[in-house]
Structures are given as structure tokens and as C-alpha cells.
């Protein structure tokens, strides 16, 4: 299941998760690399200067690199090491949208990418985009979902768009996926094949910070 609630109508005649329509905040920062570097500097100041996340310097640095290089990050670590907090803080500081998907064995691809819904009153179909359409996506325990769901997400990561009902919807920019795996669970999991793991720029082993 996903954490996103109802998807109100967005711009362009289709639905966007969380009620966010397309806006300048979803586009790349002005000035290309310089603008993005300024955003990263601001983010780094919030994370370090205000001590929102403590003891996870490598995690913060790799997220910054992933944002700059348009790469995705695979995190492996036990619960409670600030993975969710880090992604939420990124979204808040940069000004983008944040979405969280809890991967489970009964998940299907339409749960994450969206589907077409028939509106009986208007006698027509609407496209409802799934929670994957966000600037910052936290994919919790990606290895708990079946291979077809993993492939659906990884295809979006590679192509940076979703295709529903013959229409293509581009992902917002920036688009950063952080997927997590729990290394202590071995039952009911579907390990990522090597070819799928290659879609991630980094794999980070997130440990418990030292006192």
C-alpha cells in the first residue's frame, strides 16, 4: 500500500498525487548546474547547520551527489537510522514534492504508477497518476515487492516518465528515488537482480550512528 491519499485533479487534465500541480518548484533550478549547486548548498546548511540529521554524514553526502548527478540511491540498513527523515528534509528544503511507498508482496504496478479510472457521471476516463510521480520518492523495503512491481519502478527511474493508457507523463525535475532494504529480513523478500541494482548510482550501508 502507499502513503498517498486521494489524488485531486492537477494541471493538464490528469491527477497528481498529494494535490500538487505542476509548478516552477518542480522544475530544475534556474541557472543549470549553478542553480542546482545553490540549492544543494542551502540543503546542506539545513541538514548540518540545524542538525536535523546527526551522525549520518555519508548518507547526506551521497544524497547530495545523487541530486547533482541525477542518480538514484539504494539504502541498506535497519529501521530507525533517519532514512525517511533525510528524504522528507530534502523535499522540504529544495521545495519539491515528497512521496513514500511501502512495498508489500500484494502490491501491483498500477498501485505505484497510476491507472485510468472511469468517471460514470461524465462517461469518460481520467488518468490518475500514482505516488511515484514526485520529486523525491522513498521506496521502503523495495525487495518485498514482486519482480513485476520492482521492474515498473525501475523502468520509471531509467526512462523518467510513466505511460498510462497510451499517454506519456514526464516525471518532475528533479527526480530522486531512494529505495531501502532491510538486511536482517530474509523471509518474504524478492532480492533485486544485479541488472536492476545497476539502475542505482549508489548503494549505501546505513549503520547506527556512534554515540
TrEMBL record:
One of its GO terms (molecular function) is ATP hydrolysis activity. Keywords: ATP-binding, Nucleotide-binding. Transmembrane segments: none annotated. InterPro entries: ATPase_AAA-3, CbbQ/NirQ/NorQ/GpvN, P-loop_NTPase. Pfam families: AAA_3. Residues 7-16 have a biased composition (Gly residues). Residues 1-33 are annotated as: Disordered. Coiled coil: none annotated. Residues 72-202 form the ATPase AAA-3 domain. It comes from the Bacteria. Belongs to the MoxR family. This is MoxR. It comes from Mycobacterium tuberculosis. The lineage of its organism: Bacteria, Bacillati, Actinomycetota, Actinomycetes, Mycobacteriales.
Amino acid at each position: 500500500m502507499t502513503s498517498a491519499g486521494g489524488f485531486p485533479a492537477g494541471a493538464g487534465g490528469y491527477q497528481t498525487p498529494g494535490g500538487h500541480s505542476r509548478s516552477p518548484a518542480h522544475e530544475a533550478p534556474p541557472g543549470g548546474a549553478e542553480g542546482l549547486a545553490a540549492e544543494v548548498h542551502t540543503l546542506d546548511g539545513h541538514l548540518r547547520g540545524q542538525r536535523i540529521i546527526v551522525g549520518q554524514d555519508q548518507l547526506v553526502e551521497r544524497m547530495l551527489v545523487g541530486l547533482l548527478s541525477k542518480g538514484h540511491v539504494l539504502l541498506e540498513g535497519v529501521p530507525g537510522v533517519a532514512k525517511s527523515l533525510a528524504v522528507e528534509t530534502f523535499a522540504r528544503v529544495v521545495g519539491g514534492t515528497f512521496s513514500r511507498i511501502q512495498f508489500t508482496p500484494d502490491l501491483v504496478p498500477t498501485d505505484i504508477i497510476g491507472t485510468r479510472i472511469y468517471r460514470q457521471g461524465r462517461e469518460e476516463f481520467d488518468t490518475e497518476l500514482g505516488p511515484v510521480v514526485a520529486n523525491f520518492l522513498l521506496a521502503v523495503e523495495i525487495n518485498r515487492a514482486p519482480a513485476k512491481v520492482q521492474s515498473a519502478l525501475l523502468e520509471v527511474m531509467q526512462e523518467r516518465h510513466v505511460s498510462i493508457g497510451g499517454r506519456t507523463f514526464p516525471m518532475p525535475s528533479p527526480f530522486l528515488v531512494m529505495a531501502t532494504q532491510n538486511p536482517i529480513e530474509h523471509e518474504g523478500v524478492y532480492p533485486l537482480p544485479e541488472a536492476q541494482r545497476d539502475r542505482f548510482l549508489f548503494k549505501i550501508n546505513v549503520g547506527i550512528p556512534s554515540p
